[in-house]
Amino acid sequence: MQRNTFLKLSAALAAGLALSAPALAQTKTINIAGLADFAGPYANVMPEMAGARAAVFEWWNKEVGSKLNAQIAVKTYDTRYDVAQTSSLWPGIKAELKPVVVLGLGGSDAAALQQRLPEDKIPMLLATATYGFGWKPNQWALNLRPTYAHEAGAFIEWYRATKLEGKRPVKVGIITSEATPAYADQAKGLQSYAKAHPDKATFVEAIWTEVQPTDITLPVRRLANAGTDVIVIQTNTAQAVATKRALQALGKNIPIVLSLHNGLAASSKALGSPNGFAGDYEAGAIADASDSDTPARRFYRMLQEKYGLKSGWNAMTIMGLAQSMAAARAIEHTIKSQGADKVTGQTVYDTLMKTKFTSAELMGIMAGMDFSPENPFPTASSKLNIVTMKEDGKVVRAAGDIPMPTVPKW
């Protein structure tokens, strides 16, 4: 009797192990590479983006991936926002990790990998706006926002209508650098917009300076003397701080328009003053970092409460949320349509090309996401949001859901 009982228990245990082993084996780990800058011009704000990326994947793994027998693993590589460093690291990243998606930081990554990714069959998602040199068909370096010129142009049209009452073109200047292709491209794009819309914008001058300038008072004086209405800075916090200090030294109050990665909160922090950029603006085709109770803000709070997100509510964090959510949803759609074992760079790219992601899917972080082989950025869903900083340092929404203008390719 004891022997029969032992045999039955052994058989049941063996059957249980036979059932559990395949179940465990079915959990698929899907690798993503995250490119970062902890030692270059974005070192002071990179932890915000990195924290947001990690929290989204932790949330997805528990709430979504566990039900699909899949888990996303992200490994971060410090490229120092340097084209040569990114190019040097890429072969090793590809061989070691075999990622199905790359989360890029910005223009240096796009410049380094744009030509390689189609051959490697690995898509890259960037939460920055698009660069002119990336606005080509059949790209695998995909931006979640339209070009910097589209965003600047949408802001200019709003500023002209609301601040100048549409009476004359906005006189606009830009601070940038020839040190990276992305920075130089921003000036070219703004010039392309102004040339196409002379009734809305007059391009005053592009101030070419270092990536991390010390004193640019003299060139900023030229912008002030020319009657510039707004100064566009879509590069980094160092150039924003240098421009603000120059304006303070000159006693001028020309509004600065920042992009998301060098936004109001980050630039004020770098300036050493919580309200250092009061009266200035931050604009981008993504959820804004105001205190408004939005779906994106509620999702952020949930990540704080349940998944230990430490990053502050700012543009850099939102960009990290956006690109990781876009990657997670693309992987999720691919799993649901083809199975976890079929998730490759190619299948994820195919999903990105054929799927129209809704704002609800993206937790309100973006108005939507749709790509096509002709345009490496959302073509139908992009809307601009604008925030400004008050004297008490509070960031509030100035305008939202502004349509994108037409901008000729340059």
Automatic annotation (TrEMBL):
Keywords linked to the UniProt accession: Signal
- Pfam families for the chain: Peripla_BP_6
Domain Leucine-binding protein, by residue range, is: 29-391
Q: Which InterPro entries match?
A: Leu-bd (IPR028081), Peripla_BP_I (IPR028082)
Q: Which residues form the signal peptide?
A: 1-25
Q: What family, per the record?
A: Belongs to the leucine-binding protein family.
Known PANTHER family for this protein?
BLR6548 PROTEIN
Put simply, this protein is called Branched-chain amino acid transport system substrate-binding protein
